[in-house]
Amino acid sequence: MTTTTPNVAGAVETSDRVASHLHPEGSFAVDDHAVPTGLEEVWRFTPLKRLRGLHKDAPFGGGTITLDAVLPEGVTVSEVPADDAVVGSSGYVPADRISARAWQAAETVTVIKIAKEAVVADAAVITHTGSSTETATAGHAVIVAEPFSKATIVLRFEGSATVADVIEIVVGEGAQLTVVSVQDWADDAVHHTSQHALVGRDSTLRHVAISFGGDLVRMNASVAYESTGGEAELLGLYFADAGQHLEHRLFVDHNAPKSRSNVDYKGALQGQGAHAVWIGDVLIRKAAEGIETYESNKNLVLTDGCRADAVPNLEIETGEIAGAGHAATTGRFDDEQLFYLRSRGIDEAEARRLVVHGFFADIIRKIGIPAVEDKLMQAVEAELAINIGLPAAS
Length: 394
Hints:
- This protein is mainly beta.
- α2 packs across α3.
- 47% of the residues are buried.
């Protein structure tokens, strides 16, 4: 295995790192990361036995994932060697053993590029389809939004697979980028993904994580700022069914002044053994004066036998900020909402559907691409038809 040294422009210097169990110091060397035991804070919610050895030394093969791209004008996709200069340009350094293994095992890297000053009206859709869970697959992609561009990139993951991947996102000066990652795997899939963004001067990133399918999905989504004036909005929607484990871990590193972030994740759970985990962490460094941030997670429990773990965190090193806050809630259907709807002649199944629609709709409608939004609402309808007796919408 060849160890590559990437271009880490924009990365926070090691001497500036803040010691924390929530974001351990990273390394590209696999052996620098101990094999998780489940006792570590960052692994305590993850069922390690269901990772199929990704956290140990399960061999990576190839040929089990096919890629299909629908690209509007202004967006290109290419394959580059793992030592290409664009690799590592987000400043990402693997913070766990699986991500380090995926980084080293990926022989080529997919580069998705939005041309400078291009305004792309239609979403670019890149679909990854798995055909087998027998062989683990390592993936690496870099999304580059060149200065003053505007686009939406949709990454779809479907089929059967065992995957570990790294996705880097580089948002150039003044660019506006939306990245939608849809984990709509078959029931037997395992997916560990680390998605890291570097937000440039006066640029805007909207990162949307949608997790419906898979036996186990664990996403690490992180953001850092290259300069002042950057904005990041991290939105998430997940629907855990019986036996599913869906885990989302967020880290916003406010390492530049006058930057902004907003984290808003919502999840629903139904069926015996459904487990959702959301860990949010915002670090406000000494240099990050004048920043504004808020993180929120809400979980809606639809049936008995589910478990939702939600842990919001704020680490603040300067008092010179515009605002910071966090919140997390877990609860069942709002009885008052159900009573209101049923008192107006709406049957219970339809009333419950309307409540769930209202719960998710505000996040889905922020995507800004009607075709994508409609597909996600259809996926919510399909989830509602499972386990709890709600018929699919006509």
